[in-house]
């Protein structure tokens, strides 16, 4: 959720992002740029780094990729210090102006403060209205700025107490990295919807610390994984080490299941589970639940590859690269109009005719959102001479929009929200279509199935079971609090 400059809500802006931070490493900004590069899949629209040299903060923010901004030695020379945080932004529509690019930075009476946020605050518009009424002057149209103002007006004296004060007023899904003169801080929302991990870099005793959205960002900078930041936990990192605070008490986690299905990089480990292995196991479940006689299993690259491998091994049918992806175009999703999006899919994939001609083909992808990708791919595979085309999807039907930081269109544009599976098969032109069941998905993730009384993940996009108050419920503070209480 974000708001437009006149303070109204802008539902179209759902931010998926990557965050990274380091404490006490040489060339902190360069290390941060590397970490952000490994997290580039979480956001390609804009990027930024704020560093601290012990006396002054330095900032560079720009549109485009990490490499476009931070391979310039002149820029890197300005980002001095052994401490830094960074952010990759992935907003599909809405304001793409530089002032929305994070980390956000402000000078306070207690010193400097920078923050980078992954997720969505569902009561940002309510807080924004209240803060503007109090005279706060917003510089950006991103909901993350709410944190900055709440911290600025807090009556507590230390930065950490002010941060806790702010966190108690926001509702939503968030992972934050923040930097003050005294500490690097990492925060996960009470349900731990968005990921954040803690790592160690350099030698024990003299070395520094890393915070990152995913473990793949540790590998690239040579850091060791220590642990996931806990749901509802604040980690405060300074020269004394890592101090943990649980301002919400113990909460029951509802980690985003879509991170496993699509969003995270396959070489990351989330909540102790390697993403690649989880995706393969979902493919195994899919083959068990919805197998169909076929000659070849073909992934929709890259998102369908691990699930297709799992499917092929379980079905004992050859896995082949029947579709080749051109890596030099952005994700189709970042194109704002249907027309351009349609063009985008053609730019991105081509059929590998010899693999498909005369064959009964099972195509495997991770999800169907609007149905644009599936329709184009099925058509392409048929044109390449496939005899039958069966579509298999390694997630349940996406029937609900995400309000917690994954970009999904409004419900009216979600194919599965408006059509039966049979209708969807017809619309995408497939001979058959099947999705893994929600219980199959949970079995693949080492659960016995979905326990409706104690759901483990946030799976609102598949079930409509929203664990955090939605924007239209955000005025009702009782409801927010009761939802929080339920999670304890
Ligand atoms: P669609 O063409 O609208 O049905 O989108 C489905 C395709 O987009 C699939 O190939 C997914 O891998 C990919 N996808 C699903 N969710 C997202 C997302 N939140 N951001 C970017 N791509 C996505």
Features:
Glutamine Phosphoribosylpyrophosphate, subunit 1, domain 1, disordered C terminus, 488 residues, binds adenosine monophosphate, Rossmann fold, 25 strands, disordered N terminus
Describe the fold and architecture:
This protein has 488 residues and is α+β, with helices and mostly antiparallel strands. It has 2 domains: 18-254, Glutamine Phosphoribosylpyrophosphate, subunit 1, domain 1 (4-Layer Sandwich), CATH 3.60.20.10; 269-463, Rossmann fold (3-Layer(aba) Sandwich), CATH 3.40.50.2020. It is 31% helix and 25% strand. It is built from 18 helices and 25 strands. Strands 5-4-6-3-12-11-13 form a 7-stranded antiparallel sheet. A 6-stranded antiparallel sheet has the order 7-8-9-10-14-15. It has a 4-stranded parallel sheet with strand order 19-22-23-24, with helices on both faces. Strand 14 (234-238) and strand 15 (241-245) form a beta hairpin. Helix 5 (145-153) packs across helix 6 (159-167) and helix 9 crosses helix 10. The longest helix is centred in the middle third of the chain and has 16 residues, at 275-290. The relative contact order is 0.11.
